[in-house]
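Fold this complex.
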Amino acid sequence: MIIDIVSIFPEYLEPLSLSLVGKAQETGKLTVRVHDLRDWSAAPHHRVDDTPYGGGPGMVMDAPTWGRALDEIAQSCDSKPLLVIPTPSGKVFDQPTARSWVGNQSIVIACARYEGIDSRVSQHYQTRSDWAGVQEVSIGNYVLAGGEAAALVMVETVARLIPGVLGNPESAPDDTFSRADGLLEGSVYTKPPTWRDLEVPPVLLSGNHQAIDQWRAASAEEKTRNLRPDLLP
Ligand code: ADE
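Structure:
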């Protein structure tokens, strides 16, 4: 899979060379290419924004700059790219969204700043038969200063779903939001068995796998009831 990310702060995406996403890149399972939007600006001082039609505060990123960037990047893609636009006014990004993206060989993430990108960019790429569609997505009900932090979240979520990226492939299906029962993952423990007077639940040390499975199911349900009752069936 190749993910192209376009931003006016390309350095913001440097953490993608670390940890799991970095390893996925080293092993060739994923390629992340980061581009500076200003390279496609035709304006003095590499400007990429202008005042909003209709008035109001802030600036809007202009369509011609984005159009040149996205067209050139698409030409370097082997398959039709999916255009992802992180925005607080998008559909909420979740685990099923990430799973649905893993089938795409090419994803282009367009990171906005200011008041966002001229809406005709999303409109235009939805109609392009050489693109796999456009998805405007939010990582939650709060407002960031730009799409870069959201892009980091989305790339890491997608990367760990690429076959062969996770060290232990059995750990992904047990994750919260990947569980068949839709519950949060329950409490987990490791050595030592006692820490600051707190004991590991004895059943986990019993070696009785049936009892351990039952305890884990109860722990998942209790945690979900306390923290996310909306997820209970
Ligand atoms: N840009 C600003 N806020 C955002 C959010 N919550 N999700 C995605 N992109 C954003």
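Residues 86-88, 138-140, 142-144, 146-147, 150 surround adenine (CB under 6 Å).
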